[in-house]
Amino acid sequence: MVDLNGQYQSIKEQINSSISNILETSAFINGPEVHTFQKELEDYLGVKHVIPCANGTDALQIAMMGLGLRPGDEVITADFTFAATVEVIVLLQLTPVLVDVEEDTFNIDISAVEKAITPKTKAIVPVHLFGQCANMDAIMALAKKHDLYVIEDNAQAIGADYTDSEGKKQKAGTIGHVGSTSFFPSKNLGCYGDGGAIFTNDDALAHTIRGIVNHGMYERYHHDVVGVNSRLDSIQAAVLRAKLPLLDEYCDARRKAAIKYTKAFEGQDNIVVPVTVNTCGMASSICKCHVFHQYTLRITNGKRDALVEHLNDNQIPCGVYYPIPLHKQKAYADERYNEVDFPMTNKLVKEVISLPMHTELDDEQIAHITNAIIAFVNR
Fold first, then answer.
1. Range name among 111-120, 272-281, 318-327 with the lowest pLDDT average
2. Which residues contact 368 (CB under 8 A, 6 or more apart)?
3. Where are the domains of the chain?
4. How confident is residue 277, by pLDDT bands cut at 50, 70 and 90?
5. Distance between CA atoms of residues 89 and 345, nearest Å
6. In this model, does residue 133 exceed pLDDT 60?
7. CATH architecture of the domain formed by 247-377
């Protein structure tokens, strides 16, 4: 699904040199590489504060802790996403409120969000799934109307642009009150272990979060807030520093691969290709609204599971993200949920399949993958 070694070979000299320097200086935690990466990412995103942390799940949890959410507060998020999003809500004894998603973008359904708001609602967590932003204009308008926080789960969309209704461009993760991301190795900007970060333009919130990530300390052995131990190590920061200047190039390579995939599937009645919104067309690799962390098809003739088996048998990687809705997961099942409220999610889990997507994909590989899929689906 991801060719991390191929990507490494192109930046091998810089990576090896940086890691060797860290080993020589032994500045493993909160060293110069971490602080420099933080500043470089702030500049790239156009955001005032980046607070690195240990992983993307921690980033989401710390963002919620920083906002002062309390047990029993309701947090609305998408049913069709990875479990980390709801996991941290439950860990903090908040109340998750899962809602349906849009059929075309797979992102959170705004009308479902609005219906789910109650006097106990304190925050909305839009997940920018597969690399494309949710409808942030509508989400921010709802948040303003109901005095809610917006926490962007940007684990899959770092580098994506969002153009608002007035034509203003902002980077994904910097639009809400706070954003979070993951640097898991397979991400568009991935390190060689675990890593994450929190973004905000709020000075006071950034100060609180900086304490939380470091055991609640601003001064050594003075614990001013309840915190956690969640720091990005210097070796991971060095890897991210090498990759950050190439992030736009990496995302463009993914977009070009996506365009080739989509062209190959033209005219296939049983295959629905990804859509791009926000005035962004799939005909252009220049558009940055979708960074294609995943290229996800829908197989509409009931052959998805058989297709997965067929591709596996032929050593063609694929993934199903996600096979079970969060509201049906044993850990998060709740009598509050009604199946009629999740028509799109329940449909998507039976249809979606993600294809290999990375910076090293070539025309021969794409042709091999698409030909195999078309031949099987049309049997």
1. 272-281
2. 316
3. 4-245, 247-377
4. confident
5. 20
6. yes
7. Alpha-Beta Complex (3.90)
